[in-house]
Structure formats: C-alpha cells, structure tokens
Amino acid sequence: MNPLDKPWAQLALALLTVLILPLFLKSGILATEILIFAMVVAACNLLLGYTGLLSFGQGIFFGIGTYAAGICLTRWSVPVPLVLAGAAVLGAATATLVGWLSIRRQGVYFVMLTLAFSQLFYFIAYTFSGLTGGDNGLLGVPRPSIGGTALDAPWSYYTYVAVCFVAVFALLVMVTQSTFGRTLLAIRENEGRAAAIGFPTRLFKIEAFAISGAVTAFGGALHAMLIGVAPLSNIEYHTSELILIMTIIGGSSSLFGSVLGAGFYLLLADALSTVWPRWLLLLGLVLVTVALFLQRGLWGLVERGYDLAFRRERAPETPAEEH
Amino acid sequence: MTDIALQTRGLGVKYGTFHALAEVDLQIRRNSVHSIIGPNGAGKTTLFHALTGRVRASSGRIELDGRDITDTSDDDRVRLGIARSFQVTSLFPNLVLRENLRLAAQGRTPWQALAPWRRAESNAEALAIADEVIQRLELGPVVNRLAGELSHGQQRRLEVGMAMAARPRVILLDEPTSGMGIDDIEAMKQLIRDLGRDHTVLFIEHNMGIVMNISDVVTVMRLGRKLVEGTPAQVRDDPEVQRAYLGNMITGDIA
C-alpha cells in the first residue's frame, strides 16, 4: 500500500489543505465552497470507491440539506448546530429510503433507479414551492454566529466550515478503516462471496448510503449558509452529476482523492469561466482525458508521483514460494 | 442430538419450468465425508446452492441438526454452521490473502461489522482463526499477497480455507480440486480427510481417485435426481451406475 493511503497521511493531507487554501486563494467563498464539496465528494466516494455503487442520487441529499437549512434558518431561526445535525439526520433517513429501494437492483438498473429518484425529488421540490420557494429558492439564509457575532466575513465562515470539514473527513476515514469499511470493500470486490461468508450485504449497502446521505446533507446545509440562498439547483440532477464528476476526476481509491477532485474542478471552473464563457466545453475535454488516461484519477497521479520521487528503488518484491 | 447433521426430504429446485433438482432425499451423517458425483448437469451444484440458501427450494425441506432451515436466508445459514467453497474460485481478488480469511471468519458475527467505529483488528478471534487456517493450508509465505495474484493451486486452497474460516459444522466443497496439479490434489485429499474428523464434509468431485479413497458415503446423481447411494465399493460395483452412464469413468482405486 502506498504510504499516502494510510489513514494518518490522509488526515494530515486534509489538515494541510485547510491551512493552505487561505494562502493561495483570494476568495474566501471559493475556498469554503471547495471544502464543502470536498466532504460531499468524499461521501460519494464512500459509495462509488468503497462499495462500488454509482449513485446519481447525491444531489437529492445535498438539496435536502440545503432546504433543511433554508427552512429552519429563515422561518424559525433554529440554532445552527441543531440545523446541521438535523440536516444530517434527514439526509441519512432519505438516503436510507432511496438506498433501500435502489439496491434491490444491480448494475445499470441500480443507476437508473437513483437517477429516477433524483428527478422525483427535484420535481417534489419544484412543486411544493410554498415550502421550498420553487424556482426562486429560499432567500436570505443567514450565516451562523459565534458568541453573538455573525460569521459574515468569508474567511471567518471559512474557519467554521474548515472545522466541520476536518471533523467530517476524520469520521469518514474512521468509517473506511473500520471493519464496516473493510466489509464494504469485500462487497465491492465480490458481493456473492460476501453474502456466502455470512454478511447481509444489503444492510451494509444501506448503511453506506445512510452515512453518505448524512454527510452530503450536512454539506448541503453548509452550502446554503455560504451563498445565503437555498436554490432549487442544489437538488437538481445536475448537482448529482457534478458530485460524481468530481469523484471520478479525483479518483475513487482514496478519500483524499475526493478533496483533490473537488478542488481541481472548482478551481478550474473558476479560472476557465473568467477566460471563456464556453468553459464547460474545456471541462468536457478534461473529463475525457481523465477517463482515457487517468483511470485512477488525480489521486492515481499523486501516488505515481510519490513512487517516482521517494520509492524509486522499490524493494524488489520478495518472490513468494509457488505451490 | 441425532446422528444426522444435514438432511433433505423431497428437495426440489425449479429454474422456470426446468426441474434442476427433484425429490432428493439426503442424510449426511455427522463427521462423515460424503461425496456427490454425477455427470455435468446432474444438479450437484444446484443441490449445494439449495443447501446454502443461494437459491430457494421450490419443494421439500432441509434440516440442519433437526432444525428446519428451508426458509432461512443464506447469511443466516452461515451463522447456523453451514459454509461452502465454490466450483469457480470466488475470492476478493484485490484484497490480501489474510484479509480474505479475516472477512470469512468475521462472517459468523456480521452484526459486529456494522459498527463503523469498530476497528477490524479489534476482533482478535477472527484474526486468530485466519492465522490458524493459513497454517493449516500452508499458505504462510503468501499471506500478504493479493488473492488475485496467487497461483491457481493457492487460490483453490484459499477457496476451501474461506469455508473453513467460518468454523462451520457442515462444510460444503464444490469441486475443491478442479484444475489442480497432481501434487496439489494429493494435499487437498489429505485436507478433506482431515476436515472429516471434526466437521461434516459434503463435497462434489469429479476425481474418482479422491472420491473412492476418502468418502464414507457416495451419492450418485443424474438429471437432478438421486440415482444410487452407498459406500464407495457399493457404488463402484453397482451395475446400474456402471451401465447407465458412468461407464468406465470410475477408475480410481479403493485404498
């Protein structure tokens, strides 16, 4: 195993990211957005990379978190920590439901089911505009405040999100290292065998969905507070697609790959969009490149780079005795 | 406690309108080595699928130690003490050998594994079982290799080890020697014979040398039905078995 894949290395890299972003970025909003998507993408990675489930439903959970924050904060001014916890619980519950129904089918049909749910939830949000604001979304979502001062400055909110991000990332690392996470890998590798040795695989997949949904909704709530709006677009199918693309660009073999994926996408989008209004076209080219030449994503590139730099003289693998 | 570990009555499995298995009555004695033979398509593997719960029986019943398990799910049956190996090697190819066995040992207590905060290494028992199986199968030198990179013989042994790691009472081996070299076959024969001392072993095999050598009871199947059953000598000499379809397939010596 590459030393960079060790849990402490992953955690250290996440901390480093939090500390480095303010040094290189002018916009606190962009930096915060990167961290929010980083955790959401890592949650998607738990399904795609660890469990082998390609879910188009991540936007549902993101949108649900967004609306939970939007509604609770604009109507009842619920304390923010409570909103975040509530969003996570709601996200987990929705993900359990969507997961429970979707994993009844495998492969393409599973993907189609998550896609169908994604559309379904979008139209629910669109239809119940009394609650969600419909096309306009919910305006005026306030930022959290600490000790009576609202974190209105972008960088002070960045700090708030950074603390959340590190905590969530640490939790996800713990999940992937646990016996649960290792069972997920087994299910991804060979579901039939996992069932044959006694694991109720469906339950494990549903739990993976629940954890993923909780984190994604948590991120959705943070996002609503970041942009001050709970927009309809957050629950759109496009958001699901965005999260998946970031996951794939980053590489699904490590959680930190997801942080890279989110960062790379958002920074590139930011840079390209100022250069050329048709920047999405260029992004398409990037995706083609990743799909053709970088199947392990940016993280695969990092691993290769590390090997080249530090392990050039790799200890020759001791040839095991053949029987 | 009866002397019968596993028993079926009138067991049948239908795939659509095709009767893959019909009217199978089996009685597997505790701590015996019981082999199932028969030509391809005789329903041997389907019988295993039905016994482990991978496919549901469409008729009849299955009893484990006198307890009806006909409607018990496959993962529940593992906890009750049935484990199997597969005819086509079915491992976790991108996980190392030891992790494969650790998972198989953990499968007996899967609810523990649902806790996302519990470390895999905290289950010392599963690790101990994995190491014990590694020793018994002499796979020590390759414990940290990916299962997919092992040689065929090693993979076949690991395949059997996966079933052993579940600490089953009844162990079902589906063609454990398929594709093995001559030396490996001898080792596998010893292993199955050993397993028979403290487990109930039910195995499917095409290698008549092994079947005739180490089985206590042989069941011959054809077209989804049980044809003949008896000791190796009885089966080998059964005129119906010889004439009907095995012909001179039975060539192995009885040791």
3D structure, described in words:
The complex is a heterodimer of chains A (323) and B (255). By secondary structure, chain A is an all-alpha fold. Chain A has helices at residues 7-24, 28-51, 58-75, 80-102, 108-127, 129-132, 154-177, 179-189, 191-196, 201-227, 237-250, 255-275, 279-293, 297-310, and strands at residues 138-139, 145-146, 149-150, 229-230. Chain A has a two-stranded antiparallel ribbon with strand order 1-4. In chain A, a hairpin with a 2-residue loop joins strand 2 and strand 3 (149-150). In chain A, helix 4 packs across helix 5 (108-127). The two termini of chain A are 25 Å apart. Chain B contains 9 helices and 10 strands. Chain B has a 6-stranded mixed beta sheet, with helices on both faces. Chain B has a 4-stranded antiparallel beta sheet with strand order 2-1-4-5, covered by helices on one side. Chain B is globular, with a radius of gyration of 18 Å. The model of chain B is unreliable at 250-255 (pLDDT under 50). Chains A and B meet through helix 7, helix 8, helix 9 and helix 10 of A and helix 2, helix 3 and helix 5 of B.
